């Protein structure tokens, strides 16, 4: 939602994230640890 107000990752965007989702850095790190894609689609 912050990108609707500020499309770039600039200081204003970071300030919006800090205000409305204070733990966004934690969540970003968790998401970045996930694999980019699923290699084996057989179940």
> What's the overall geometry?
elongated
Head-to-tail CA distance between termini = 35 Å
Low-pLDDT segments: none
Q: How is the main sheet built?
A: none
Rg over C-alpha atoms, rounded to the nearest angstrom: 15 Å
Q: How many extended strands?
A: 0
> How does the helix and strand content classify structurally?
mainly alpha
Q: Work out the helicity level.
A: 55-70%
Determine the number of helices (DSSP H or I, runs of at least 4 residues). 3
Description:
With 43 residues, the protein is mostly helical. The chain has 3 helices and no strands. The chain has helices at 2-5, 11-20, 24-33. The protein is elongated and about 45 Å long. The protein starts with a helix and ends in a 10-residue tail after the last helix. The model has no long low-confidence stretch (mean pLDDT 90).
